[in-house]
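Technical note accompanying the year-one report. For the benefit of new consortium partners, we illustrate the data format agreed upon in the data management plan: each record pairs a sequence with a structure-token string. No post-processing was applied to the example shown here.
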Amino acid sequence: MTRLAAAFAKPSPALIAFVTAGDPTPAATPAILEALVEGGADVIELGMPFTDPMADGPAIQAANIRSLGAGTTTADILAIAKGFRARHPDVPLVLMGYANPMIRRGADRFAAAAKDAGVDGVICVDIPPEEDDALGPALRAAGIAAIRLATPTTDAARLPTVLTGASGFLYYVSVAGITGKQQPQQDSIDAAVARLKAATELPVAVGFGIRTPEQAAQVARVADGVVVGSAIVEIVARHGVGSPGPVAAYIRTLADAVAGARQTLMEIGA
């Protein structure tokens, strides 16, 4: 069983926590990742900073600017990932970012370096499934999950294309637009998750706009995973190199809410 499969096989839905690598500095990131694990995150999503993060809202855009301003490179990110893997052999680690840093020196080279660093999956925001050949074959050859995104506009006609070649889990973007700016409607999430789970055996994780333990609990009642990003990045922005403590405390509230939501469903026989 892969690390990702094991994370989704637990009794509670997986809590997936996102931070931007190198924010506020590359040297500070390992301690922040430790805080995510300490707080109870099941999967770590490490953002690769980019100059034009078109899918991200102000919080993550600002994190990208801080990281790049601190001189973060792809080599730094892979070193951070490798160090994390040495400390946490069983915690899944996913890289999320944009095509340019991943493929500018060749997809095979990136995939090999990610494998060497112990990366479990990659989400590339701006390579559509129709252009899978740009990165997907290299990832699969390296044993790395090519994680795909589905959105509220992914209709029945396009969903099979999104799922072809997908692995690890399916990431459902619960709102149309950029990260951190809109609040998802639970009714629409319920319907979308049901539709996606009917189409695939992959776990379905829901992200974008989830900030509070209450929201995380609502999503956890229907989804296999709950993704939180912008709210964590905002804590890092407020506390800088002193953010590990506040990050761990915040993650703990989310982890407790996610676990409690599924336990409640089990108790009522849902």
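Partners are asked to follow this layout when depositing records. The mean pLDDT is 94.
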